[in-house]
Amino acid sequence: MYKYLNTPINLFISYSHKDEELKNNLKSHLMALKRCGLINIWHDREILSGQEWEGEINEHLDNAHIILLLISSDFIQSDFCYGVEMKHAMARQNFGDAVIVPVILRDCHWDVTPLGKLQALPHNGKAVTSWPNIDEAFNNVVQGICDLIKEGFFNEQINFKYKRIENYLKETRRNKKCHAHKSKIDAWEEQIINIQERIQHFRKIFKVTDPIHDPERYEEIKLKIEVYSQELDKLEIELKSME
What we know:
By secondary structure, this protein is α/β, with parallel strands linked by helices.
């Protein structure tokens, strides 16, 4: 879906300027992920004097891996936020090029819009301003984004490859020319099952490892997953050679 193996992912923030203070508060909380090298943050206040603002916005929307839509009644009322940026973001998500995360800043009927089908932050779509402590609300948002980054890394490294290899195995077994290699194919299946079991073990650890508070452990587990990913790459090459 989006590629961020060893580089920070690009995070785009779309918001109404009437929510500038809340956006700045969120950005402060996101700085922990930025300082860990997990994300780059961009919003329209990054546009420099003399730059063509609409072109800059489109360029950064096109390059974003995760798009945060900061939802309020003012966001929905804005023709540019709702009609241009959100439409652009939805198109990229539909093509599988980016992920949209609605962040509910203030209570409004956001759930009757196309965003209603998406998983929102904070938890259960409870508006940030409805929380007793606004820092807890934004911390919940950052944790949700962190979880999304880890899940995206895992999918890119493992799940997509594993599904491709499963399909190759099915096709190989259907191919009569490969019947003479049945024992080799059986060995591959056994190897894949073994790799999958090890991967699932580390996935559980990876999901609960905090890259902010325990970056060394995070990188250690990430490296192990990358090693298993390389094993899957080798298996995929061997399977393709049977075609």
